[in-house]
Write a structure and sequence with these properties.
This protein is mainly alpha-helical. It has a domain of 304 residues. Helix 6 packs antiparallel against helix 9 and helix 14 packs antiparallel against helix 15. It holds the Pfam family NADHdh.
Length: 451
């Protein structure tokens, strides 16, 4: 079945089979130049993405957006970077200064390192030397990307903890719980890619999509990855670690000047990184879209694949911006329930289905019609169980204590929990007495009822 579909809908021409032995053979100056070019591209891409996000959101909200600094406001991001560099650098008294200074560096370095194993194109003539448009590759390159991405969490957690601020600490804890939860779903979404490609090398995974992109073959994995990458990057509507209505500014509340700029840089580079990973693993990487290679034979050779690769990356970046301008922020418990109760169980069921299909495809002893029907029923049941409502136990109202409350009884910077545990639901209405004898009741929704 898959073979018939792949022969009818080829999305890319036959790509050259990569050889891992070709990596690590470049002269030192080629490796150094590649690393410098990747760094420069990512910095320029960050400046462009900030401008692009502002312009797109402004257009969605019927505003003008940046339009003063440079043509179309293109230099606005550069002006913001200079402004941050010239701002006063403040370190709180209660901060752990060493960790406070190292946290932004720990957050931003993994964002750059991940791009070392992302293929940007085929083998090209690089200043007279034949080399792949990729810094390096390895048999477990995708696991390397996941491992490096998980290190960035330490920068955020340590930044929130070392600030000596309650809101920063809570923002760091939120971010760590969020990123760890959604990394589980993201990793499970990639397992199906490993099973289908038969490799964890990024260049080999791109070559395995020479007939049909994995985003179509493994559509559930693609959807789960796209949801997980939004949660992984702390972007709206999943930007709960930086919820200004609850946590002031989140884990970087106490940061300023260049240290804040590093956190900002890490966020936007991670935005491009998860987009590049999605492009590599699900959209054929640097391969030209369907039909182009049949009209133009050189579409997948030379430096032209850079155009296809970054074109696909910008599609994902536009998706991030579109979500930010369209959807409201989720509640934290809803967001965590989505990750643990929906994405992870569906991912596990889908992995079982993909593994079963691959085994049957290799052995061919069972009728695929009955197999696909059984897997479809399994997926429907799994998704249906996600929507079965849980009966909420009725909680007895807790009477507020009239005794004086010590805000620092639990130790600084974490305040103690309210009496009776965390408060759920809307806040209790407040009643104010007037000098005229009347009363005004204000609910959590700011509705006024005059008695």
């Amino acid at each position: 079945m898959n073979g018939a579909v792949m022969s009818v809908l080829p999305l890319a021409a036959d790509l050259p089979a990569p050889e891992l032995d070709a990596f690590g053979q470049d002269p030192w100056w080629v490796i150094l130049l590649k690393a410098v070019l990747i760094f420069v591209i990512l910095v320029l891409l960050t400046l462009f993405n900030i401008w692009f996000e502002r312009r797109v959101v402004a257009r969605m909200q019927h505003r003008v957006g940046p339009n003063v600094h440079g043509p179309f406001g293109l230099l606005q991001s550069l002006a913001d970077g200079v402004k941050l560099a010239l701002k006063e650098d403040i370190v709180p008294k209660a901060a752990d200064k060493v960790v406070f200074l190292l946290a932004p560096v720990i957050a931003v370095v993994p964002a750059f390192v991940t791009w070392a194993v992302i293929p940007l194109g085929p083998t090209v003539n690089f200043f007279g030397h034949q080399t792949p448009l990729q810094l390096t590759d390895m048999p477990v390159a995708v696991l390397f990307m996941l491992a490096i991405a998980s290190i960035g969490i330490y920068g955020i957690v340590l930044g929130g903890w070392s600030s000596g601020s309650t809101y920063s600490l809570l923002g760091g804890l939120r971010s760590s719980a969020q990123m760890i939860s959604y990394e589980v779903a993201m990793g499970l979404a990639l397992v199906a890619v490993f099973l289908y490609a038969g490799s964890m090398s990024t260049s080999e995974i791109v070559a395995a999509q020479d007939r049909l992109w994995f985003g179509l073959i493994l559509l559930p994995s693609f959807v789960i990855y796209m949801i997980s990458m939004v949660g992984e990057t702390n972007r709206a509507p999943f930007d709960l670690p930086e919820a200004e209505g609850e946590l002031v500014g989140g884990f970087h509340t106490e940061y300023s000047s260049l240290k804040f700029a590093l956190f900002f840089l890490a966020e936007y580079i991670n935005l491009a990184t998860v987009s590049a990973i999605a492009t590599t693993l699900f959209l054929g990487g640097w391969a030209a879209p369907w039909g182009i290679e049949h009209v133009w034979e050189g579409a997948n050779s030379g430096y032209w694949p850079l155009l296809w690769f970054f074109g696909k990356v910008f599609i994902f970046i536009f998706l991030f911006v579109w979500l930010r301008g369209s959807l409201p922020r989720m509640r934290y418990d809803q967001f965590m329930a989505l990750g643990w109760k929906v994405l992870i169980p569906v991912s596990l069921a889908w992995i079982v289905a993909v593994a079963t299909i691959r085994v049957i495809s290799l052995e061919g002893n069972i009728d695929r019609t009955y197999l696909v029907a059984a897997i479809a029923v399994l997926l429907v049941l799994t998704i249906g169980l996600m929507f079965v409502g849980e009966k909420k136990a009725e909680e007895a109202p807790v009477e507020a204590s009239e005794e004086p409350h010590d805000a620092f009884a639990g130790g600084f910077p974490v305040p103690p929990m309210p009496a009776g545990g965390a408060v759920r639901g809307a806040a209790a209405p407040l009643t104010f007495a007037h000098s005229s004898g009347g009363r005004t009741t204000v609910t959590a929704a700011a509705e006024e009822n005059h008695e």
